[in-house]
Amino acid sequence: MPELPEMENYRLLLSSRIIGIPISVVEVEREKSINTSVEIFQRQLLGSSILHIERRAKHLLFHLNTTKVLVLHLMLGGMMFYGSGEDRPERTVQITISWGNRHLYFIGLRLGYLHLHDALEAEKLLKKLGPEPLETGFTFNEFVSLLERNRGTLKSTLVDQSIIAGIGNCYSDEICFEAGLLPARRCQQLQREEFERLYLSMRQVLQTATRQGGYMEMPLFPGDSLTGGYDSRCKVYDREGEPCVRCGSPLVRQDVSSKKSFCCLNCQS
């Protein structure tokens, strides 16, 4: 599932390509992926343009010049591709938004969605989300206050969107590895020095992953050499059986809080 770095990468790359251009065609091949009738959805979008794209947690918000907002959550298996009709990937496309001969394909939206809301509706829907981990205002002290009163594991706490927004299975494991902490550790067991390592690791991993394009497998557009650049740099996620880059011990998979998790039992504690 795309997490903060993947969605931020999408936001940055799309912003220079689709903002300010009137939408010419809207095709919906799966009505369950939207929250209105196809007719209303098309009528609201056709002729409008995107003023700016915002990311909130794992969502992208496409702010239209009509004051409407498209709220995208790709969920498990969802992705996007931008290009010409000739470039259309051989994947199942649920929604296509076009600007002349350029198209944005929304792929794999079986669990994900692209919903149309008024601006206030969109704001209300996202109020339940926790703070953004890379915001300058999200201080170490606030981080500690959120985690130390939580009874759960690091894994369950880091992926809880109501506590901290944007982190999922992949980056929770990468963050714990960088901090030298096991995902199964309980938040209430951590010492202040361990909280410091975790906070710094969270910011470092998310910033690095964003700069390197996240771990998504498919380029966003033809010639895109950035998207997915972090995949090969993941140190523990989906690396079961491989040697730890820090100590050489085999990495293991452990289900933590009913979620798959990867770690090194030797150099994480």
TrEMBL record:
Residue span, FPG-type domain: 235-269
Residue intervals of the Formamidopyrimidine-DNA glycosylase catalytic domain: 2-112
Gene3D superfamilies: 1.10.8.50, MutM-like, N-terminal
InterPro entries cross-referenced by the UniProt entry: FPG_cat, FPG_N, H2TH_FPG, Ribosomal_uS13-like_H2TH, Znf_DNA_glyclase/AP_lyase
Molecular function per GO: class I DNA-(apurinic or apyrimidinic site) endonuclease activity; damaged DNA binding; double-stranded DNA binding; oxidized purine nucleobase lesion DNA N-glycosylase activity; oxidized pyrimidine nucleobase lesion DNA N-glycosylase activity; zinc ion binding
Domain of life assignment: Bacteria
Biological processes annotated in GO: base-excision repair
Cofactor: Zn(2+)
Catalytic activity: 2'-deoxyribonucleotide-(2'-deoxyribose 5'-phosphate)-2'-deoxyribonucleotide-DNA = a 3'-end 2'-deoxyribonucleotide-(2,3-dehydro-2,3-deoxyribose 5'-phosphate)-DNA + a 5'-end 5'-phospho-2'-deoxyribonucleoside-DNA + H(+)
This enzyme's EC code(s): 4.2.99.18
Keywords: DNA damage, DNA repair, DNA-binding, Endonuclease, Glycosidase, Hydrolase, Lyase, Metal-binding, Multifunctional enzyme, Nuclease, Zinc, Zinc-finger
Family: Belongs to the FPG family.
Protein name, UniProt field: DNA-(apurinic or apyrimidinic site) lyase
Source organism of the structure: Paenibacillus foliorum
